[in-house]
Amino acid sequence: NVDPARDMLLVDGPVDALDHAAPYFAYGSKIGFDATRKLPGEGQVRPWPDEIRMNDEVMNLVDRRWGEYGIPGSGARTP
Predict the structure, then answer these.
(1) pLDDT tens, position by position, 50-73
(2) At 19, is the secondary structure helix, strand, or coil?
(3) Closest of 31, 28, 29 to residue 8, by C-alpha
(4) Are 15 and 27 in contact (CB under 8 A)?
(5) Is residue 42 part of a domain?
(6) Residue 76 in domain
(7) Which of 13, 27, 36, 62 has a CA that sits 20 to 30 A from residue 50's CA?
């Protein structure tokens, strides 16, 4: 539910002097994305979709295989 025209901002200006990807010393561009749920007046005209939830079969599979994924943390679910 990100609309690039509404939810993306690209700006040129000062950047960190240690940003070696910048084309010029301490000057470059930054990009920002607003992927948050929109408030009234922010241009969201369609209803926000329901949150997607994994079914128990998928959740149990992920729990069993968590150690194989190489992601730090216990993989414990939060209610």
Answers:
(1) 888 899 999 999 989 988 988 887
(2) coil
(3) 31
(4) yes
(5) yes
(6) no
(7) 62
